[in-house]
Design goal:
Elements: H1 4-22, H2 26-48, H3 54-79, H4 84-106, H5 113-134, H6 140-166, H7 171-195, H8 201-220
Helix pairs in contact: 1-2, 1-8, 2-3, 2-8, 3-4, 4-6, 5-6, 6-7, 7-8
Length: about 220
């Protein structure tokens, strides 16, 4: 697989970021997080050169860039605590926009797309019921953002699975599905850890690790489309 050394470098930086953040050194943590995020954007841009479907690749790369912006914003909330909630919501908005682009990239590959959109909406409803039943009281803004965001990523996952079912020999779609599922799992862990009664370092590490691997899989899949 091309760019494996860059992937490994990104994972190493991500590990250092998790360690530094756990020590509450938030400024160097933001720098490390930004560096790791830039790497998956670079991998996406390099992989894009091999893509025969440039419209798909462009949407995915822009989605990766928005993910990197979201990464930095989510960690800046620890640096600027007074406006931390606003920065957090801006970060979620950046991720949501990225998921919309990821979804738009997939639609041409997914016959009966509305069936999978419906499946994704049903899955989102189940996930949200589980979340709202197990976390504390949330502010209205966080509830609205959570509903829209989880809806978007669950639908994106469903359409990714539909695209792979329609193209079962496509390595690109296989990698994309892995990335999408890891991303969803990461976000669910993040929500429980952020809004639950206690925050655990192990859950934070799992959230960040799964997220980064998900973005790498999505970036690398561009080589094979």
């Amino acid at each position: 697989m091309l760019y494996l050394p860059l992937c490994i470098l990104g994972i190493v930086i991500q590990v250092f970021f998790i360690i530094v953040e756990s020590k509450k050194k938030y400024v160097p943590a933001v720098i490390l997080k930004g560096a790791a995020s830039i790497l998956f954007v670079v991998i996406g841009l390099l992989s894009m050169r091999f893509s025969e479907n440039q419209s798909f690749a462009r949407l995915v790369v822009i989605g990766l860039i928005l993910g990197a912006v979201g990464d930095i914003l989510l960690n800046l909330r620890f640096v600027f605590e007074k406006i931390g909630q606003k920065i957090f919501l801006l970060g979620i908005l950046a991720f949501f926009s990225g998921h919309v682009l990821y979804l738009a990239a997939l639609i041409p590959f997914c016959p009966n797309v509305w069936l999978y959109v419906l499946c994704g909406a049903v899955a989102a409803a189940g996930i949200l019921w589980c979340i709202f039943s197990n976390v504390g009281k949330l502010k209205k803004a966080f509830k609205i953002f959570g509903i829209v965001y989880i809806g978007a990523i669950a639908i994106m996952n469903a359409v990714a699975i539909g695209s792979f079912i329609a193209n079962p020999t496509s390595l690109s779609m296989f990698l994309y599905v892995i990335g999408a599922v890891l991303f969803l799992a990461s976000d669910i862990i993040m929500i429980f850890n952020t809004f639950g009664s206690t925050q655990k370092l192990s859950m934070r590490a799992a959230n960040l690790s799964l997220y980064y691997l998900g973005q790498l899989f999505i970036a690398v899949c561009l080589q094979f489309i």
